[in-house]
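Hi team, as promised in this morning's meeting, here are the two structures we talked about. I've kept the exact order from the run log so nobody has to guess. The first one is mostly here for context; it's the second one we should focus on when we meet again. Sequence first, then the predicted C-alpha coordinates.
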Amino acid sequence: MWGKVRPVGSRVPKPGHKPQVEPPYIWGSFYQAEFTSSGTDALAIAVAVALNRKKVQSRPEVILPAYGCPDIVSAVVSQGVKPVLVDLMPDTPFMDLEKVREAIGPSTIAIIAVGFLGIPERLELLASVCREHDLFLIEDSAQCFPPASVNSGVADAVILSFGRGKPINLMGGGALLIRSEAIATCSAVLDHFPLLRTEIGLKWRLKRLIFNALMRRIPYLLLERLPFLRLGETRYRPLDGASRNDIPARLVLSGIRSFENRPVQHPIYDSCLDTLDTKGWIRLGLTNKKLGGLDERLPRLRYAILAPSTELRDRAELELNAHGISANSFYRNSLPDVPGVEALLIQKKEYPVADSFASRLLTLPCHEDVREADIKLIAAVLDGLSTREPPQACAHHR
Protein backbone atom coordinates (compact mmCIF):
# COMPACT_ATOMS: atom_id res chain seq x y z
CA MET A 1 0.00 0.00 0.00
CA TRP A 2 1.67 3.18 -1.22
CA GLY A 3 0.23 5.81 1.06
CA LYS A 4 -3.13 6.32 2.69
CA VAL A 5 -5.97 8.82 2.34
CA ARG A 6 -6.19 10.74 5.64
CA PRO A 7 -9.58 10.66 7.39
CA VAL A 8 -10.18 14.40 7.65
CA GLY A 9 -8.56 17.80 7.45
CA SER A 10 -7.74 20.34 4.78
CA ARG A 11 -4.49 22.15 4.19
CA VAL A 12 -3.68 25.26 6.18
CA PRO A 13 -4.07 28.24 3.83
CA LYS A 14 -1.43 30.87 3.23
CA PRO A 15 -2.40 34.11 5.00
CA GLY A 16 -3.46 36.92 2.70
CA HIS A 17 -2.50 40.58 2.90
CA LYS A 18 -3.44 42.59 5.95
CA PRO A 19 -6.82 44.28 5.28
CA GLN A 20 -6.87 48.08 5.43
CA VAL A 21 -10.22 48.14 7.23
CA GLU A 22 -12.14 45.72 9.46
CA PRO A 23 -13.36 42.97 7.10
CA PRO A 24 -17.07 42.12 6.68
CA TYR A 25 -17.34 38.58 8.02
CA ILE A 26 -20.05 36.21 6.84
CA TRP A 27 -21.73 36.34 10.27
CA GLY A 28 -21.75 40.15 10.49
CA SER A 29 -25.50 40.65 9.94
CA PHE A 30 -26.38 39.21 13.35
CA TYR A 31 -23.21 38.47 15.31
CA GLN A 32 -19.95 39.92 16.54
CA ALA A 33 -16.96 37.63 17.00
CA GLU A 34 -14.72 37.14 20.00
CA PHE A 35 -11.83 35.01 18.78
CA THR A 36 -10.51 32.36 21.15
CA SER A 37 -7.63 29.91 21.53
CA SER A 38 -9.79 26.92 20.52
CA GLY A 39 -13.35 25.88 19.82
CA THR A 40 -13.49 24.31 23.28
CA ASP A 41 -12.45 27.64 24.81
CA ALA A 42 -15.17 29.39 22.81
CA LEU A 43 -17.78 26.97 24.16
CA ALA A 44 -16.55 27.40 27.73
CA ILE A 45 -16.89 31.18 27.41
CA ALA A 46 -20.37 30.78 25.89
CA VAL A 47 -21.40 28.69 28.92
CA ALA A 48 -20.01 31.44 31.17
CA VAL A 49 -22.16 33.99 29.30
CA ALA A 50 -25.24 31.78 29.77
CA LEU A 51 -24.40 31.38 33.45
CA ASN A 52 -24.17 35.14 33.90
CA ARG A 53 -27.45 35.66 32.06
CA LYS A 54 -29.61 33.38 34.22
CA LYS A 55 -29.02 32.92 37.94
CA VAL A 56 -30.30 29.68 39.49
CA GLN A 57 -30.50 28.47 43.08
CA SER A 58 -28.69 25.14 42.71
CA ARG A 59 -25.79 24.06 40.52
CA PRO A 60 -26.61 25.15 36.93
CA GLU A 61 -27.16 22.62 34.15
CA VAL A 62 -26.66 22.61 30.38
CA ILE A 63 -28.37 20.15 28.00
CA LEU A 64 -26.35 18.45 25.24
CA PRO A 65 -26.59 15.32 23.06
CA ALA A 66 -25.52 11.95 24.46
CA TYR A 67 -23.31 11.34 21.43
CA GLY A 68 -20.61 13.86 20.62
CA CYS A 69 -17.14 15.15 21.31
CA PRO A 70 -16.04 14.84 24.96
CA ASP A 71 -14.54 18.33 24.67
CA ILE A 72 -18.12 19.63 24.90
CA VAL A 73 -18.35 18.09 28.36
CA SER A 74 -14.99 19.53 29.40
CA ALA A 75 -16.07 23.03 28.30
CA VAL A 76 -19.28 22.79 30.35
CA VAL A 77 -17.62 21.34 33.45
CA SER A 78 -14.84 23.96 33.36
CA GLN A 79 -17.43 26.61 34.26
CA GLY A 80 -18.81 24.65 37.22
CA VAL A 81 -21.90 23.58 35.26
CA LYS A 82 -23.44 20.10 35.13
CA PRO A 83 -23.78 18.42 31.71
CA VAL A 84 -27.21 16.84 31.18
CA LEU A 85 -27.25 14.32 28.33
CA VAL A 86 -30.22 13.71 26.04
CA ASP A 87 -30.70 10.69 23.79
CA LEU A 88 -30.97 11.00 20.00
CA MET A 89 -33.73 10.50 17.48
CA PRO A 90 -33.35 7.11 15.77
CA ASP A 91 -30.79 7.06 12.94
CA THR A 92 -29.93 10.77 13.24
CA PRO A 93 -27.37 12.86 15.14
CA PHE A 94 -30.19 15.07 16.46
CA MET A 95 -31.47 15.24 20.03
CA ASP A 96 -34.94 13.82 20.68
CA LEU A 97 -37.07 16.93 21.33
CA GLU A 98 -39.38 15.15 23.78
CA LYS A 99 -36.38 14.10 25.83
CA VAL A 100 -34.99 17.63 25.64
CA ARG A 101 -38.18 18.92 27.24
CA GLU A 102 -38.06 16.19 29.89
CA ALA A 103 -34.47 17.16 30.76
CA ILE A 104 -35.29 20.83 31.43
CA GLY A 105 -35.42 21.70 35.10
CA PRO A 106 -35.25 24.79 37.33
CA SER A 107 -31.43 24.79 37.11
CA THR A 108 -31.21 24.55 33.31
CA ILE A 109 -29.54 27.60 31.77
CA ALA A 110 -28.75 26.56 28.18
CA ILE A 111 -29.06 24.02 25.38
CA ILE A 112 -26.10 23.15 23.15
CA ALA A 113 -27.20 22.31 19.59
CA VAL A 114 -24.37 20.43 17.90
CA GLY A 115 -23.87 20.45 14.14
CA PHE A 116 -22.60 17.01 13.13
CA LEU A 117 -20.00 16.69 10.34
CA GLY A 118 -21.63 19.46 8.32
CA ILE A 119 -25.22 18.49 9.23
CA PRO A 120 -26.75 21.27 11.39
CA GLU A 121 -29.20 20.63 14.22
CA ARG A 122 -32.84 21.79 13.93
CA LEU A 123 -32.20 25.20 15.43
CA GLU A 124 -35.65 26.70 14.93
CA LEU A 125 -37.28 23.89 16.92
CA LEU A 126 -34.73 24.14 19.72
CA ALA A 127 -35.02 27.94 19.74
CA SER A 128 -38.75 27.57 20.33
CA VAL A 129 -38.05 25.34 23.34
CA CYS A 130 -35.51 27.85 24.65
CA ARG A 131 -37.98 30.74 24.36
CA GLU A 132 -40.58 28.78 26.32
CA HIS A 133 -38.17 28.18 29.21
CA ASP A 134 -35.95 31.29 29.02
CA LEU A 135 -32.86 29.30 28.03
CA PHE A 136 -29.71 30.33 26.14
CA LEU A 137 -29.29 28.52 22.79
CA ILE A 138 -25.70 27.75 21.78
CA GLU A 139 -25.07 26.48 18.26
CA ASP A 140 -21.90 24.39 18.34
CA SER A 141 -20.77 24.73 14.74
CA ALA A 142 -17.24 23.40 15.23
CA GLN A 143 -17.91 20.77 12.53
CA CYS A 144 -20.04 22.96 10.24
CA PHE A 145 -19.31 26.08 8.23
CA PRO A 146 -20.90 28.46 7.77
CA PRO A 147 -23.03 28.14 10.91
CA ALA A 148 -26.74 27.58 10.31
CA SER A 149 -27.53 30.72 12.34
CA VAL A 150 -25.65 33.21 10.16
CA ASN A 151 -28.67 33.97 7.96
CA SER A 152 -31.25 34.12 10.75
CA GLY A 153 -29.54 34.88 14.05
CA VAL A 154 -31.63 32.14 15.66
CA ALA A 155 -28.97 31.03 18.17
CA ASP A 156 -27.94 33.29 21.03
CA ALA A 157 -24.30 32.27 20.54
CA VAL A 158 -22.37 30.27 17.96
CA ILE A 159 -19.15 28.28 18.34
CA LEU A 160 -16.51 27.95 15.61
CA SER A 161 -13.29 25.94 15.69
CA PHE A 162 -10.20 26.53 13.56
CA GLY A 163 -8.33 23.44 14.74
CA ARG A 164 -6.87 20.58 12.73
CA GLY A 165 -9.61 18.47 11.20
CA LYS A 166 -12.18 21.28 11.23
CA PRO A 167 -13.85 22.97 8.21
CA ILE A 168 -11.48 25.93 8.54
CA ASN A 169 -8.03 24.70 9.51
CA LEU A 170 -5.74 27.37 10.98
CA MET A 171 -3.89 24.85 13.20
CA GLY A 172 -5.74 26.20 16.21
CA GLY A 173 -8.07 28.89 17.44
CA GLY A 174 -11.80 29.37 17.46
CA ALA A 175 -14.49 31.98 17.72
CA LEU A 176 -17.48 32.79 19.89
CA LEU A 177 -20.16 34.63 17.91
CA ILE A 178 -22.52 36.63 20.11
CA ARG A 179 -25.64 38.41 18.92
CA SER A 180 -24.74 42.04 18.26
CA GLU A 181 -27.39 43.49 20.57
CA ALA A 182 -26.12 41.36 23.47
CA ILE A 183 -22.38 42.01 23.13
CA ALA A 184 -22.38 44.99 25.52
CA THR A 185 -24.00 43.00 28.33
CA CYS A 186 -21.44 40.21 27.84
CA SER A 187 -18.33 42.39 27.97
CA ALA A 188 -17.71 41.90 31.69
CA VAL A 189 -17.82 38.11 31.26
CA LEU A 190 -15.53 38.22 28.22
CA ASP A 191 -13.00 40.43 29.99
CA HIS A 192 -12.67 37.78 32.69
CA PHE A 193 -10.82 35.52 30.22
CA PRO A 194 -7.19 36.35 29.35
CA LEU A 195 -6.37 37.64 25.86
CA LEU A 196 -3.57 35.93 23.92
CA ARG A 197 -2.31 36.64 20.42
CA THR A 198 -1.57 34.49 17.38
CA GLU A 199 1.58 35.66 15.59
CA ILE A 200 2.14 34.78 11.93
CA GLY A 201 5.90 34.65 12.17
CA LEU A 202 8.60 32.31 10.91
CA LYS A 203 7.72 29.61 13.44
CA TRP A 204 4.06 29.62 12.39
CA ARG A 205 4.97 29.53 8.68
CA LEU A 206 7.36 26.60 9.12
CA LYS A 207 4.73 24.73 11.12
CA ARG A 208 2.24 25.32 8.31
CA LEU A 209 4.63 23.95 5.66
CA ILE A 210 5.41 20.84 7.71
CA PHE A 211 1.76 20.24 8.58
CA ASN A 212 0.64 20.49 4.96
CA ALA A 213 3.43 18.17 3.80
CA LEU A 214 2.43 15.53 6.35
CA MET A 215 -1.14 15.47 5.02
CA ARG A 216 -0.02 13.76 1.82
CA ARG A 217 -0.70 10.06 1.42
CA ILE A 218 2.72 8.54 2.09
CA PRO A 219 3.64 10.82 5.04
CA TYR A 220 0.23 10.24 6.61
CA LEU A 221 0.65 6.46 6.38
CA LEU A 222 3.99 6.74 8.17
CA LEU A 223 2.53 9.03 10.85
CA GLU A 224 -0.35 6.64 11.49
CA ARG A 225 2.11 3.86 12.29
CA LEU A 226 3.66 5.82 15.17
CA PRO A 227 1.69 4.55 18.21
CA PHE A 228 2.73 7.36 20.57
CA LEU A 229 0.88 9.93 18.39
CA ARG A 230 -2.46 8.21 19.17
CA LEU A 231 -4.03 9.63 16.02
CA GLY A 232 -7.82 9.66 16.08
CA GLU A 233 -8.13 8.50 19.68
CA THR A 234 -11.17 9.80 21.59
CA ARG A 235 -10.24 10.98 25.07
CA TYR A 236 -11.71 13.21 27.73
CA ARG A 237 -9.35 16.10 28.47
CA PRO A 238 -10.20 18.51 31.29
CA LEU A 239 -10.07 22.17 30.27
CA ASP A 240 -7.76 23.97 32.68
CA GLY A 241 -8.60 27.48 31.54
CA ALA A 242 -10.19 29.16 28.53
CA SER A 243 -8.71 32.18 26.80
CA ARG A 244 -9.52 34.67 24.10
CA ASN A 245 -7.11 35.09 21.20
CA ASP A 246 -6.35 37.99 18.89
CA ILE A 247 -6.24 36.02 15.62
CA PRO A 248 -5.20 38.18 12.63
CA ALA A 249 -8.13 38.95 10.33
CA ARG A 250 -6.10 38.04 7.24
CA LEU A 251 -5.62 34.53 8.59
CA VAL A 252 -9.32 34.04 9.32
CA LEU A 253 -10.29 35.44 5.91
CA SER A 254 -7.83 33.15 4.12
CA GLY A 255 -9.36 30.19 5.95
CA ILE A 256 -12.86 31.18 4.88
CA ARG A 257 -11.76 31.64 1.25
CA SER A 258 -10.04 28.26 1.30
CA PHE A 259 -13.25 26.62 2.52
CA GLU A 260 -15.37 28.38 -0.10
CA ASN A 261 -13.05 27.20 -2.91
CA ARG A 262 -12.91 23.59 -1.70
CA PRO A 263 -14.39 20.92 -4.01
CA VAL A 264 -17.70 19.42 -2.92
CA GLN A 265 -17.20 15.65 -2.72
CA HIS A 266 -20.44 14.34 -1.25
CA PRO A 267 -22.45 14.35 -4.52
CA ILE A 268 -19.97 11.77 -5.86
CA TYR A 269 -20.51 9.70 -2.72
CA ASP A 270 -24.28 10.07 -3.13
CA SER A 271 -24.07 8.67 -6.64
CA CYS A 272 -21.61 5.85 -5.93
CA LEU A 273 -23.22 4.64 -2.69
CA ASP A 274 -26.87 4.73 -3.76
CA THR A 275 -27.13 0.92 -3.87
CA LEU A 276 -26.39 0.73 -0.13
CA ASP A 277 -29.88 2.07 0.65
CA THR A 278 -31.39 -1.30 -0.28
CA LYS A 279 -28.88 -3.18 1.88
CA GLY A 280 -29.68 -1.66 5.25
CA TRP A 281 -27.21 1.24 5.25
CA ILE A 282 -28.34 4.80 6.04
CA ARG A 283 -26.63 7.82 4.50
CA LEU A 284 -26.99 10.56 7.09
CA GLY A 285 -26.65 13.48 4.70
CA LEU A 286 -29.61 12.24 2.65
CA THR A 287 -31.97 11.16 5.43
CA ASN A 288 -31.28 14.30 7.49
CA LYS A 289 -31.44 16.81 4.63
CA LYS A 290 -34.94 18.08 5.36
CA LEU A 291 -34.71 17.77 9.13
CA GLY A 292 -31.48 19.70 9.47
CA GLY A 293 -31.70 22.28 6.68
CA LEU A 294 -28.65 20.79 4.98
CA ASP A 295 -27.14 22.93 2.21
CA GLU A 296 -25.95 20.59 -0.56
CA ARG A 297 -23.67 23.26 -2.03
CA LEU A 298 -21.32 23.28 0.96
CA PRO A 299 -18.38 20.92 1.58
CA ARG A 300 -18.81 18.50 4.45
CA LEU A 301 -16.25 17.51 7.04
CA ARG A 302 -16.80 13.77 6.49
CA TYR A 303 -19.33 11.57 4.72
CA ALA A 304 -21.29 9.75 7.43
CA ILE A 305 -23.19 6.47 7.07
CA LEU A 306 -24.83 4.05 9.49
CA ALA A 307 -24.22 0.34 8.96
CA PRO A 308 -26.96 -2.28 9.42
CA SER A 309 -24.93 -3.80 12.28
CA THR A 310 -21.87 -3.18 14.41
CA GLU A 311 -20.21 -6.26 12.94
CA LEU A 312 -20.55 -4.99 9.38
CA ARG A 313 -19.36 -1.51 10.39
CA ASP A 314 -16.24 -2.97 12.00
CA ARG A 315 -15.48 -5.20 9.01
CA ALA A 316 -15.94 -2.27 6.63
CA GLU A 317 -13.62 -0.11 8.72
CA LEU A 318 -10.89 -2.76 8.70
CA GLU A 319 -11.18 -3.54 4.99
CA LEU A 320 -11.25 0.08 3.85
CA ASN A 321 -8.17 0.87 5.93
CA ALA A 322 -6.45 -2.15 4.42
CA HIS A 323 -7.16 -0.59 1.00
CA GLY A 324 -5.57 2.73 2.01
CA ILE A 325 -8.76 4.61 2.95
CA SER A 326 -8.92 6.10 6.45
CA ALA A 327 -12.50 5.21 7.30
CA ASN A 328 -13.28 5.28 11.00
CA SER A 329 -16.03 5.08 13.58
CA PHE A 330 -15.40 8.65 14.80
CA TYR A 331 -16.00 8.82 18.59
CA ARG A 332 -16.93 5.10 18.68
CA ASN A 333 -18.89 5.40 21.96
CA SER A 334 -21.67 7.55 23.33
CA LEU A 335 -20.45 10.10 25.87
CA PRO A 336 -21.15 8.08 29.06
CA ASP A 337 -18.82 5.35 27.76
CA VAL A 338 -15.90 7.69 27.10
CA PRO A 339 -13.42 7.16 29.97
CA GLY A 340 -13.59 10.05 32.42
CA VAL A 341 -17.02 11.36 31.38
CA GLU A 342 -19.43 9.16 33.37
CA ALA A 343 -18.19 10.46 36.74
CA LEU A 344 -19.11 14.00 35.66
CA LEU A 345 -22.76 13.23 34.87
CA ILE A 346 -25.64 13.95 37.24
CA GLN A 347 -26.85 10.37 37.29
CA LYS A 348 -26.26 7.23 35.32
CA LYS A 349 -28.87 6.73 32.59
CA GLU A 350 -29.30 4.60 29.51
CA TYR A 351 -29.07 6.18 26.05
CA PRO A 352 -29.99 3.28 23.74
CA VAL A 353 -30.37 5.31 20.54
CA ALA A 354 -27.05 7.12 21.03
CA ASP A 355 -25.40 3.77 21.79
CA SER A 356 -26.85 2.28 18.60
CA PHE A 357 -25.75 5.31 16.58
CA ALA A 358 -22.20 5.09 17.96
CA SER A 359 -21.98 1.35 17.32
CA ARG A 360 -22.99 1.63 13.64
CA LEU A 361 -21.48 4.94 12.51
CA LEU A 362 -18.80 4.89 9.82
CA THR A 363 -17.24 8.11 8.53
CA LEU A 364 -15.49 8.45 5.18
CA PRO A 365 -12.95 11.08 4.07
CA CYS A 366 -14.49 14.02 2.22
CA HIS A 367 -11.61 16.51 1.88
CA GLU A 368 -10.09 18.02 -1.25
CA ASP A 369 -7.52 15.23 -1.74
CA VAL A 370 -10.12 12.48 -2.09
CA ARG A 371 -10.30 11.33 -5.71
CA GLU A 372 -13.27 9.92 -7.57
CA ALA A 373 -11.34 6.64 -7.86
CA ASP A 374 -11.10 6.52 -4.04
CA ILE A 375 -14.86 6.91 -3.71
CA LYS A 376 -15.49 4.19 -6.30
CA LEU A 377 -13.13 1.90 -4.36
CA ILE A 378 -15.04 2.65 -1.15
CA ALA A 379 -18.33 1.86 -2.91
CA ALA A 380 -16.98 -1.44 -4.24
CA VAL A 381 -15.72 -2.52 -0.80
CA LEU A 382 -18.96 -1.62 0.98
CA ASP A 383 -21.11 -3.21 -1.70
CA GLY A 384 -19.08 -6.42 -1.57
CA LEU A 385 -19.28 -6.66 2.21
CA SER A 386 -23.00 -5.87 2.24
CA THR A 387 -23.75 -8.56 -0.32
CA ARG A 388 -22.18 -11.14 1.99
CA GLU A 389 -23.85 -9.77 5.15
CA PRO A 390 -27.26 -11.15 6.19
CA PRO A 391 -29.76 -8.39 7.06
CA GLN A 392 -29.95 -7.49 10.77
CA ALA A 393 -32.28 -5.32 12.81
CA CYS A 394 -30.85 -2.17 14.36
CA ALA A 395 -30.31 -2.36 18.11
CA HIS A 396 -32.94 0.23 19.04
CA HIS A 397 -35.55 -1.51 16.85
CA ARG A 398 -35.24 -4.89 18.52
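And here is the second protein, the one for discussion:
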Amino acid sequence: MASWLHLCDRESVTSRTPTEKPLRADAARNRNAIITAARHAFAEQGLQVPLDEIARRAGVGEATLHRRFPDRESLIAAAFTDKMTDYADAAAQALADPDPWAGFCGYVRRVCAMQSGDRGFADLLTLTFAATNPAIEDLEGRRAGAYRDWVTVVRRAKTSGQLRADFHPDDMILLLMANAGVVAATVGTAPDAWQRIVEYLLQAFTTEHARELPTPPPREALLRAMHRSQQAVV
Protein backbone atom coordinates (compact mmCIF):
# COMPACT_ATOMS: atom_id res chain seq x y z
CA MET A 1 0.00 0.00 0.00
CA ALA A 2 2.76 2.39 0.95
CA SER A 3 4.61 1.59 -2.27
CA TRP A 4 1.47 2.28 -4.30
CA LEU A 5 0.93 5.65 -2.61
CA HIS A 6 4.57 6.54 -3.20
CA LEU A 7 4.20 5.63 -6.87
CA CYS A 8 1.04 7.72 -7.15
CA ASP A 9 2.85 10.67 -5.59
CA ARG A 10 5.69 10.32 -8.07
CA GLU A 11 3.30 10.06 -10.99
CA SER A 12 1.35 13.04 -9.73
CA VAL A 13 4.50 15.15 -9.41
CA THR A 14 5.74 13.97 -12.79
CA SER A 15 2.46 14.86 -14.45
CA ARG A 16 2.34 18.33 -12.87
CA THR A 17 5.94 19.40 -13.21
CA PRO A 18 6.13 19.65 -17.02
CA THR A 19 2.96 21.75 -16.92
CA GLU A 20 3.97 24.05 -14.04
CA LYS A 21 7.48 24.89 -15.18
CA PRO A 22 6.49 26.22 -18.61
CA LEU A 23 3.70 28.24 -16.98
CA ARG A 24 6.17 29.85 -14.61
CA ALA A 25 8.56 30.53 -17.47
CA ASP A 26 5.73 31.92 -19.60
CA ALA A 27 4.61 34.17 -16.77
CA ALA A 28 8.13 35.54 -16.30
CA ARG A 29 8.52 35.97 -20.06
CA ASN A 30 5.21 37.80 -20.31
CA ARG A 31 6.08 40.05 -17.39
CA ASN A 32 9.44 40.98 -18.91
CA ALA A 33 7.83 41.59 -22.30
CA ILE A 34 5.22 43.86 -20.73
CA ILE A 35 7.83 45.86 -18.81
CA THR A 36 10.00 46.27 -21.92
CA ALA A 37 7.02 47.35 -24.01
CA ALA A 38 5.91 49.77 -21.29
CA ARG A 39 9.35 51.36 -21.08
CA HIS A 40 9.41 52.02 -24.81
CA ALA A 41 5.80 53.22 -24.97
CA PHE A 42 6.14 55.50 -21.94
CA ALA A 43 9.40 56.93 -23.30
CA GLU A 44 7.78 57.74 -26.64
CA GLN A 45 4.33 58.92 -25.55
CA GLY A 46 4.40 59.66 -21.82
CA LEU A 47 2.64 57.94 -18.95
CA GLN A 48 -0.84 58.28 -20.42
CA VAL A 49 -0.23 55.79 -23.23
CA PRO A 50 -3.19 53.35 -23.40
CA LEU A 51 -2.55 50.07 -21.64
CA ASP A 52 -4.02 48.11 -24.54
CA GLU A 53 -1.25 49.50 -26.75
CA ILE A 54 1.36 48.28 -24.26
CA ALA A 55 -0.28 44.84 -24.28
CA ARG A 56 -0.23 44.82 -28.08
CA ARG A 57 3.46 45.77 -28.18
CA ALA A 58 4.24 43.06 -25.64
CA GLY A 59 2.35 40.46 -27.65
CA VAL A 60 -0.01 39.59 -24.80
CA GLY A 61 -3.70 40.04 -24.13
CA GLU A 62 -5.04 42.80 -21.92
CA ALA A 63 -6.14 40.20 -19.37
CA THR A 64 -2.54 38.98 -19.07
CA LEU A 65 -1.28 42.52 -18.59
CA HIS A 66 -3.82 43.20 -15.84
CA ARG A 67 -3.05 39.87 -14.19
CA ARG A 68 0.63 40.81 -13.93
CA PHE A 69 -0.03 44.51 -13.21
CA PRO A 70 -3.46 45.19 -11.71
CA ASP A 71 -3.20 48.97 -12.15
CA ARG A 72 -1.20 51.54 -14.10
CA GLU A 73 0.79 52.57 -11.03
CA SER A 74 2.11 49.02 -10.59
CA LEU A 75 3.28 48.98 -14.19
CA ILE A 76 4.89 52.42 -13.87
CA ALA A 77 6.74 51.28 -10.74
CA ALA A 78 8.13 48.20 -12.52
CA ALA A 79 9.02 50.09 -15.70
CA PHE A 80 10.93 52.88 -13.96
CA THR A 81 12.79 51.05 -11.20
CA ASP A 82 16.13 51.36 -13.00
CA LYS A 83 15.56 54.98 -14.00
CA MET A 84 14.65 55.96 -10.45
CA THR A 85 17.82 54.24 -9.24
CA ASP A 86 19.82 56.36 -11.71
CA TYR A 87 17.96 59.43 -10.45
CA ALA A 88 18.94 58.67 -6.86
CA ASP A 89 22.52 57.96 -7.95
CA ALA A 90 22.69 61.36 -9.65
CA ALA A 91 21.96 63.09 -6.35
CA ALA A 92 24.51 60.96 -4.50
CA GLN A 93 27.17 61.71 -7.12
CA ALA A 94 26.43 65.44 -6.93
CA LEU A 95 26.85 65.25 -3.18
CA ALA A 96 30.20 63.48 -3.60
CA ASP A 97 31.59 66.10 -6.00
CA PRO A 98 34.37 68.07 -4.24
CA ASP A 99 33.22 71.23 -6.06
CA PRO A 100 29.78 72.12 -4.64
CA TRP A 101 28.78 74.27 -7.61
CA ALA A 102 29.91 71.67 -10.15
CA GLY A 103 27.92 69.06 -8.22
CA PHE A 104 24.84 71.27 -8.26
CA CYS A 105 25.05 72.03 -11.99
CA GLY A 106 25.94 68.46 -12.87
CA TYR A 107 22.87 67.16 -11.08
CA VAL A 108 20.53 69.63 -12.79
CA ARG A 109 21.96 68.84 -16.22
CA ARG A 110 21.90 65.08 -15.68
CA VAL A 111 18.33 64.91 -14.43
CA CYS A 112 17.05 67.21 -17.18
CA ALA A 113 18.90 65.06 -19.73
CA MET A 114 17.13 62.00 -18.31
CA GLN A 115 13.83 63.81 -18.85
CA SER A 116 14.74 64.72 -22.42
CA GLY A 117 15.32 61.11 -23.44
CA ASP A 118 12.16 59.71 -21.89
CA ARG A 119 8.79 61.48 -21.91
CA GLY A 120 7.46 59.03 -19.36
CA PHE A 121 10.27 59.81 -16.95
CA ALA A 122 9.76 63.51 -17.63
CA ASP A 123 6.16 63.01 -16.50
CA LEU A 124 7.16 60.86 -13.54
CA LEU A 125 9.42 63.52 -12.03
CA THR A 126 6.60 66.07 -12.03
CA LEU A 127 3.99 63.99 -10.21
CA THR A 128 3.69 62.06 -6.98
CA PHE A 129 1.76 58.95 -6.03
CA ALA A 130 -0.47 58.11 -3.10
CA ALA A 131 1.45 56.38 -0.32
CA THR A 132 -1.39 53.85 0.00
CA ASN A 133 -0.30 51.88 -3.08
CA PRO A 134 2.30 49.27 -2.00
CA ALA A 135 3.53 48.87 -5.59
CA ILE A 136 4.79 52.43 -5.63
CA GLU A 137 6.42 52.51 -2.18
CA ASP A 138 9.91 51.64 -3.40
CA LEU A 139 9.74 54.23 -6.17
CA GLU A 140 8.67 56.97 -3.78
CA GLY A 141 11.28 55.83 -1.26
CA ARG A 142 14.05 56.32 -3.83
CA ARG A 143 12.64 59.71 -4.73
CA ALA A 144 12.62 60.72 -1.06
CA GLY A 145 16.22 59.60 -0.62
CA ALA A 146 17.29 61.58 -3.69
CA TYR A 147 15.49 64.64 -2.35
CA ARG A 148 17.35 64.44 0.97
CA ASP A 149 20.67 64.35 -0.89
CA TRP A 150 19.52 67.21 -3.11
CA VAL A 151 18.78 69.40 -0.09
CA THR A 152 22.37 68.89 1.03
CA VAL A 153 23.67 69.61 -2.50
CA VAL A 154 21.80 72.93 -2.42
CA ARG A 155 23.11 73.79 1.03
CA ARG A 156 26.72 73.08 -0.02
CA ALA A 157 26.38 75.20 -3.16
CA LYS A 158 25.01 78.10 -1.12
CA THR A 159 27.78 77.79 1.45
CA SER A 160 30.35 77.95 -1.36
CA GLY A 161 28.97 81.38 -2.25
CA GLN A 162 28.07 80.41 -5.83
CA LEU A 163 24.37 79.57 -5.52
CA ARG A 164 22.01 82.44 -4.78
CA ALA A 165 20.82 82.46 -1.18
CA ASP A 166 17.11 82.46 -2.02
CA PHE A 167 17.20 79.29 -4.11
CA HIS A 168 14.89 76.72 -2.53
CA PRO A 169 15.33 72.96 -3.05
CA ASP A 170 11.72 72.79 -4.24
CA ASP A 171 12.59 75.18 -7.06
CA MET A 172 13.91 72.04 -8.75
CA ILE A 173 10.32 70.84 -9.05
CA LEU A 174 9.44 74.01 -10.97
CA LEU A 175 12.51 73.53 -13.16
CA LEU A 176 11.51 69.93 -13.93
CA MET A 177 7.95 70.99 -14.74
CA ALA A 178 9.29 73.64 -17.12
CA ASN A 179 11.75 71.22 -18.71
CA ALA A 180 9.05 68.57 -19.14
CA GLY A 181 6.99 71.12 -21.06
CA VAL A 182 9.91 72.00 -23.31
CA VAL A 183 10.68 68.33 -23.93
CA ALA A 184 7.06 67.55 -24.83
CA ALA A 185 6.73 70.58 -27.12
CA THR A 186 9.98 70.09 -29.04
CA VAL A 187 10.19 66.30 -29.34
CA GLY A 188 10.84 65.36 -32.95
CA THR A 189 11.54 68.94 -34.02
CA ALA A 190 14.18 70.45 -31.72
CA PRO A 191 15.06 67.67 -29.26
CA ASP A 192 18.06 69.54 -27.82
CA ALA A 193 16.15 72.74 -27.03
CA TRP A 194 15.94 71.77 -23.35
CA GLN A 195 19.70 72.32 -23.01
CA ARG A 196 19.35 76.03 -23.76
CA ILE A 197 16.64 76.65 -21.18
CA VAL A 198 18.58 74.67 -18.56
CA GLU A 199 21.74 76.72 -19.14
CA TYR A 200 19.73 79.94 -18.95
CA LEU A 201 18.38 78.83 -15.59
CA LEU A 202 21.75 77.73 -14.23
CA GLN A 203 23.14 81.17 -14.99
CA ALA A 204 20.16 82.75 -13.25
CA PHE A 205 20.84 80.63 -10.16
CA THR A 206 24.27 82.18 -9.53
CA THR A 207 24.85 84.82 -6.87
CA GLU A 208 26.14 87.12 -9.60
CA HIS A 209 22.69 87.35 -11.17
CA ALA A 210 20.69 87.35 -7.95
CA ARG A 211 17.76 89.76 -7.88
CA GLU A 212 14.75 89.72 -5.61
CA LEU A 213 12.33 86.92 -6.49
CA PRO A 214 8.65 86.37 -5.78
CA THR A 215 7.93 84.23 -2.72
CA PRO A 216 8.25 80.52 -3.55
CA PRO A 217 5.02 78.50 -3.50
CA PRO A 218 4.41 76.44 -0.35
CA ARG A 219 5.66 72.86 -0.61
CA GLU A 220 2.14 71.60 0.09
CA ALA A 221 0.88 73.49 -2.96
CA LEU A 222 3.57 71.94 -5.16
CA LEU A 223 2.76 68.47 -3.87
CA ARG A 224 -0.93 69.05 -4.58
CA ALA A 225 -0.02 70.06 -8.13
CA MET A 226 2.09 66.92 -8.52
CA HIS A 227 -0.71 64.77 -7.13
CA ARG A 228 -3.16 66.39 -9.56
CA SER A 229 -0.81 65.42 -12.40
CA GLN A 230 -0.78 61.85 -11.10
CA GLN A 231 -4.59 61.73 -11.11
CA ALA A 232 -4.58 62.81 -14.76
CA VAL A 233 -2.28 59.88 -15.58
CA VAL A 234 -4.06 57.07 -13.73
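Starting points for discussion:
Residues 79-230 form a domain with the Tetracycline Repressor; domain 2 fold (CATH 1.10.357).
Confidence is low (pLDDT under 50) at residues 1-23.
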